[in-house]
Amino acid sequence: MKFTELPTPCYLLDENRLVQNLAVLRDVARRTGAKILLAQKAFSMFSVYPLIREYLAGTTASGLYEARLGHEEFGGETHVYAPAYAEGEFREILEYADHIVFNSFTQWKAYGSLARAAGKSCGLRLNPECSTQPSDHAMYDPCGPDSRLGITIENFQPELLDGIEGFHFHTLCEQNSDDLVRTVAAFEQNFGQYMDGLKWINLGGGHHITRADYDVETLVHCIDYLQKKYKVQVYLEPGEAVVLNAGYLVSTVLEVMHNHKDIAILDTSAACHMPDVLEVPYRPPVYRGGEPGKKAFTYLLTGRSCLAGDVIGEYSFDVALGAGEQVVFEDMALYTMVKTNTFNGMPLPLIAIRRADGTDEVVRMFGYEEFKRRLS
Hints:
Elements: E1 10-14, H1 15-32, E2 35-39, H2 49-52, E3 58-61, H3 64-74, E4 77-81, H4 87-93, E5 99-102, H5 105-117, E6 121-125, E7 166-168, H6 177-191, E8 200-202, H7 216-230, E9 233-236, H8 240-243, E10 247-259, E11 261-266, H9 270-273, H10 276-279, E12 297-302, E13 311-317, E14 326-330, E15 350-354, E16 360-364, H11 368-373
Parallel strand pairs: 1-15, 2-3, 2-9, 3-4, 4-5, 5-6, 6-7, 7-8, 8-9, 11-12
Antiparallel strand pairs: 1-10, 10-11, 10-14, 12-13, 15-16
Helix pairs in contact: 6-7
GO molecular function: diaminopimelate decarboxylase activity
Keywords: Decarboxylase, Lyase, Pyridoxal phosphate, Spermidine biosynthesis
Cofactor: pyridoxal 5'-phosphate
């Protein structure tokens, strides 16, 4: 049976699973008083922002366009952080942002007066220099050697804190709350003495709060500790946790061939539609699929671009694959739609939502114009 009757490739968001995640996040916010924001860099499907804003306090942005999208489509609070701001864009950011976080004292000196004059709450991103990432996540470690993300204690200038209302750090990636506790301890050791008089602290993203084995009680304790000790508002800005296991990328087999291995060529592409598969690398789970050799039929799943390395991975299935069969990749809401590209003239997947009653509804379809518009 087909997973969906919609044309493929297709991103399909499961509304019920989204609501389950949101309920967990809202519970943490209600228990602690923390404010939880959607990190749009992971998920920017604004058609469901009206639903998400029933649970979360606002959005975070990494630059002008995300700030505008969050302000216009989500509402609530709009927080912006970028490693560096361009002057022309920064002036426009002031139209949309409520909180603005600066990555260095140089940026703070250049733009802080403009932000304060516009009535914005200003903060600094700090680097507690506490790496908790596994070695295969080095490219996602903001505390790694030579990181450009955040101010280290060596470069901290307390004499320039006048006007700063909050501190921000973001060091986690798909991690549990024990790593947050370690990071908070390092943060306090380096910067705790400068917390007096601040209004807020933002603990960033990477908190896998909605994962089944996540220790929510430790997170709650950590938030309560910070708020009571420093009398500040705590913010969290998860991205993945909002849509964890709530989305699919549905593809169709175009051809099966053999070259030492059985190879299934799909109508999707790792390079174009799920680039984390090549960048991280990330192995997405497959619906009714298993590890190579675990089931009767094993295939190397590949994309249809001309890139030789457009390979998703080896998976096994109970039944043989053939042209027309659907292959469904799970946990595909995060870092997919926001990263798609049209390399090789590859069509972008349509975007759809599976409603609570089980019906599938197309939200957006793309065509040749999306490809052409990106070119000159």
